[in-house]
């Protein structure tokens, strides 16, 4: 499994016009496409996050979220056998790290998505949730 070390880079009180990178909780926490559902659940729990970017041989290929895991377990999958690619969401929506938070909010609402990959120079630097974005608007 990839390293899950975290650093704090979060801005204290970001506003909707601040860059989306202000909401990144540190480095990107990622899993490999071959990691099991159990591995992903442990990483989510240990890091107190709701989603991770899934990487394949050519780079990021999707997002695995708590919701994906809950659906898979409800359908009866074996978390020790099934892999990230069996349960993840393949649509990886990316937003450049310099885009304002308000663009992230619109992208998420318009697309009906809960997680965005934040990228810098085509490298995922973090995953931001709709909860993170909503907190900016609610103070």
Distance between the termini: 36 Å
The main sheet comes to:
3 strands, mixed
Q: Could you name the CATH class?
A: Alpha Beta
Q: Strand order across the biggest sheet?
A: 1-2-3
Query: Per CATH, what is the topology?
Result: CBS-domain
How many individual β-strands?
Answer: 6
Question: C-alpha Rg, in Å?
Answer: 15 Å
Overall pLDDT score: 90
Number of helices: 5
- Taken from the alpha-carbon principal axes, the silhouette is globular
CATH-level-4 superfamily name: CBS-domain
Order of helices and strands: EHEEHHEHEEH
Count of the domains: 1
Helix content: 25-40%
Structural class assignment: alpha/beta
Q: How large a portion of the residues is in β-strands, by DSSP E?
A: 15-25%
CATH architecture field: Roll
Which parts are unreliable, with pLDDT below 50 for 5 consecutive residues or more?
A: 1-9
Topology:
Elements: E1 30-32, H1 37-47, E2 51-56, E3 59-65, H2 66-74, H3 84-87, E4 94-96, H4 101-111, E5 115-120, E6 123-129, H5 130-138
Parallel strand pairs: 1-2, 4-5
Antiparallel strand pairs: 2-3, 5-6
Please describe what this structure looks like.
With 139 residues, the chain is α/β, with parallel strands linked by helices. The chain has a single domain, classed as CBS-domain, CATH 3.10.580. It contains 5 helices and 6 strands. It has helices spanning 37-47, 66-74, 84-87, 101-111, 130-138, and strands at residues 30-32, 51-56, 59-65, 94-96, 115-120, 123-129. The longest helix is centred in the N-terminal third of the chain and has 11 residues, at 37-47.
Q: What features would you highlight for this structure?
A:
single chain; 139 residues; alpha/beta; 32% helix; 23% strand; disordered N terminus
């Amino acid at each position: 499994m990839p390293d899950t070390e975290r650093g704090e880079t979060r801005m204290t009180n970001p506003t909707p016009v601040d860059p989306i990178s202000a909401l990144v909780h540190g480095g990107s926490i990622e899993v490999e496409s071959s990691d099991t559902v159990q591995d992903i659940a442990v990483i989510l729990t240990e890091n107190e996050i709701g989603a991770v970017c899934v990487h394949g041989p050519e780079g990021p290929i999707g997002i695995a979220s708590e919701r994906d895991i809950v659906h898979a377990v409800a359908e009866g999958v074996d978390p020790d056998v099934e892999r990230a690619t069996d349960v993840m969401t393949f649509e990886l929506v990316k937003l450049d790290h310099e885009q304002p938070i308000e663009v992230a909010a619109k992208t998420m609402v318009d697309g009906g998505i809960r997680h965005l990959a934040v990228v810098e120079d085509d490298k995922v630097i973090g995953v931001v949730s709709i909860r993170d974005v909503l907190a900016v608007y609610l103070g």
